[in-house]
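Supplementary Methods, section 5.1.

A reviewer requested that the exact input to the structure prediction be made available. We therefore reproduce it here, unchanged from the version used in the analyses.
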Amino acid sequence: MNRTRISKGLLSIVPIVAIAIWCSHSIGSSVRAHARPKGSAQSPATPQQLSDAGQASLREIAQAGNLPELRWPDFSDYTKILQEFYRSYGYSLAWVSGMQPTTQARQAIAILLNADEKGLSAEDYDGPRWSDRLAKFQPATSQPSEADAVRFDAALSVCLMRYISDLHVGKINPKHFNFGFDIQARKYDLAEFVKKDVADAPDVSAVLAQVEPPYPGYRRTIQALQKYLELAKEYNGAPLPASPKTIAPGDVYPGVPQLIRELQGVGDLPADATLPADGTIYQGPLVDAVKNFQRRHGRDSDGRLGAQTLADLNVPLSNRVRQMQLTLERWRWMPASYEKAPIVANIPEFRLRAYDDNFKIALTMNVVVGKAYAHSTPVFEDELAYVVFRPYWSVPYSIAKSEFFPQIARDPDYLAKKGFEVVDSRQVVVTSGTVTPEIFPQLRAGKLFIRQLPGPKNSLGLVKFIFPNDYNVYMHDTPAQEYFSKSRRDFSHGCIRLQKPADLAALVLRDTPGWNMDRVRAAMSGGTTQQVNLAHPIPVLIVYGTVIVTEDGLVHFYDDIYGYDSELEKALDKGYPYPG
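The structure derived from this sequence is encoded token-by-token as follows.
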């Protein structure tokens, strides 16, 4: 199905839970409507009728899926939609009446010209070309030709349909990147939507505002983008002076004046901060401002100007704008609503948030995610189904082969010493002791398996959270608590390690009779393995956002640890048509 077809249900008033995935510190509900905004009645403009030659020209354009004067001429992915759209008009014009652009056409063009404010690009929707097209309809000019009107109308239909689809579900289908988010359920008949809800709307902007994601975090990112677009124009991006050594508080640094300007610009240094008269000493409020900057960029906030902090400070603000645009694209892939409040883990942030029944943040914690490049944690959505206390760890064959088999070859008693055993496919224990010459070949062949006994030293800790998925990824406790204090936390084989597993267990089992924190702790410290099914499955989202805007308006930037921003940018730079 073409990516531009958005769910028909959105044509009517739809209650949408406005969850603030990734970065929201509050989640509420809102009502979104794709019906025409209420307002003064307005008679629809009479579609411009065409001659037989004009109709033939319009049909030819729609069938060809190509219009040379567009910034992106190939609209072959919209061919059927455009044909359906104009067929519904009897191949008359939707945006021209009396050989003049309709009020809605002019409103739509104004919206396209401001696409940058939404994290999109006006250039993609023919921004610079509209003035010349409109000029052909000016009274001072000769009567516009029918051919001009046809091409104007077709160009506006294509650009507006692209804009609506891009704003609602993103430009590129997330499955192109093997992300487990399905945008198909949110697609509808775009030709019908444009005709019934846009072409005759008293206020086009009010209608199009309703196709955007409903999340507060998305809206905060849009607001932050406006600020950074202006900052990028103001600051020329000249790098701060390099230093052969780390600059500590009290050191002389010739870049202090420039550092002050930059940190005041992004809000880390208050404009009214009292600064020392000596303009080259790195001290006072400036050190606190650097600590703020470091925290916002996921670094250790030591207040020292080392190589990493200087590199972060020297990232051009235009790059930060692009980072926001890429994050907004991913926001548009998110599901529109949930019946139950979700659990959301954001990979680059190394952070998890869980929400209560009122869609308010109930729990936040640091997490450890999969190692970059080798064992990356997948991006997808699923549902938490059950919790296992004092779990066994069934060692994946890839890990057994690379990490265990060499140890067993050197010491046949290695597994017994480390608290592991060998089992068959039915989890029947084959040996808890020595791996004999008869058993080892069966392990190598994948006919027998290694599992770790439950207990405090188990790699999964004392509890794991299962949301069955094709990636075999889950969340769990860990005995390796030291990693949670590090600023960068990609150390796992793909699963997500939790800093506060007991707290999460108590939260997710709140609707399961008889379970509270005391019982959770008793189950974790007990002597048996126990599975507890949730009374109601809970949505789990593992997302990838390198820009987070919190409720206080602070903009946080994180490293593109898996290179997904880079991949998305390269795909977007190729232009239309995008992978659907």
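The two ends are 8 Å apart (CA to CA). These observations are discussed further in the main text.
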